[in-house]
Design goal:
two-stranded antiparallel ribbon; 9 helices; Herpes Virus-1; rod-shaped; about 350 residues
Length: about 350
């Protein structure tokens, strides 16, 4: 007769079957090494990401300092520096503005200023490429990528004075004196001399302006012998200027002094630029120190994590050894209980 399902007796399981199904999977030495390698790669990737983020932050902070230093100057001063830079031949800096390394073969130069980058020193938002031309964000904010300031050539030679008198009354010394505004009129402190071509009129008596005004209305005044009322007593300003001359040495000295005074503005601009560079270098030193401290802290953290990882690996190996001993003891116990 076939057995009914309800009457069937369940066979007892062997004492070793449950323990064998629940036995943990043991790792071979090669598997343990692979786990260690994978954990080391993940830790290395994490450290590389931390270092990359730190470098990007430092580049952004350095560029922010450069932008603040550039925008602090008045716009007129910026335009003047641009014009002087263009007249000097548009020479760029010999080092990168971020890392300060001089590697000219890898420089990326801004088209409208002297700033230079390395490709790996570019930070987000610090540059742009317009029409296949590289521009920094400072020039883009000034709209110099589309409409840079106009530059006109400036002659360093003195301009000749425009005189309204006859050409025979002008000399080389007078033209030099006319090119300097404060030398166009005689001063009491200078050693003045009479011109040679004025010797014939040396006996002329100068009358006050009021007397000249009366004479212009037809009132005649007595004068020295040979002087008539028909001679015009009024003298133009140009004739008064030609009454006196200066020696060429005095004129050249005064001209050099005048040119030096004109150079004061450019020297002040250079001083401000040097101060800005000193500030930038000081900030760069501070940023490098912070980056070094961050790297040291990252190295210390990695060493701590390595020590913890080694301790955890040893604990796991001890657990595996204990489990193996437990399995062996269970097998021995089960074999001892089996009937012979």
């Amino acid at each position: 007769m076939p057995r009914k399902p309800g009457n069937a007796k369940a066979r007892p399981r062997s004492p070793t079957s449950g323990s064998q199904s629940k036995r943990p999977r043991l790792l071979t030495p090669a598997g343990r090494d692979q786990v260690n390698v994978n954990n080391g790669d993940a830790q290395q990737n994490q450290l590389q990401k931390i270092a990359s983020d730190a470098r990007e932050e430092i580049r952004s902070q350095k560029w922010a300092v450069i932008v603040a230093s550039a925008t602090k100057q008045p716009y007129d001063s910026q335009v003047q520096q641009y014009k002087e830079w263009k007249r000097a031949g548009s020479k760029h800096d010999g080092h990168c503005c971020i890392c300060l390394r001089a590697e000219r073969e890898r420089h990326m130069q801004c088209h409208t200023c002297k700033i230079v980058f390395h490709p790996e020193c570019l930070s987000r938002g610090s540059y742009s490429i317009r029409n296949h031309t590289f521009y920094c964000s400072i020039c883009i904010d000034r709209s110099w990528d589309s409409s840079p300031p106009d530059t006109l050539p400036v002659s360093l030679e003195p301009t000749s004075a425009q005189t309204h008198g006859p050409p025979s009354h002008t000399t080389t010394d007078n033209s030099n004196a006319a090119s300097i505004p404060h030398l166009q009129y005689p001063t009491p402190s200078l050693n003045l001399q009479r011109e040679g071509h004025r010797t014939q009129s040396a006996t002329r008596v100068y009358r006050p302006r009021g007397t000249d005004r009366n004479t212009s209305h037809g009132i005649a005044h007595p004068g020295p012998a040979g002087q008539t009322a028909t001679e015009s007593p009024q003298r133009t300003d140009h004739q008064r200027k030609l009454d006196y001359t200066l020696s060429s040495d005095v004129l050249s000295s005064l001209y050099r002094l005048y040119r030096e005074i004109e150079l004061v503005a450019s020297l002040r601009a250079e001083i401000e630029e040097l101060r800005a560079q000193n500030t930038k270098y000081a900030e760069t030193i501070r940023m490098n120190k912070r980056f070094r401290d961050a790297l040291l802290a990252g190295i210390q953290n990695s060493q701590t994590m390595d020590a913890r990882f080694v301790g955890t690996a040893e604990n796991i190996n001890d657990m595996f050894a204990n489990l193996e001993e437990l399995v062996v003891s269970e097998r021995q116990t089960a074999s001892a209980k089996e009937p012979k």
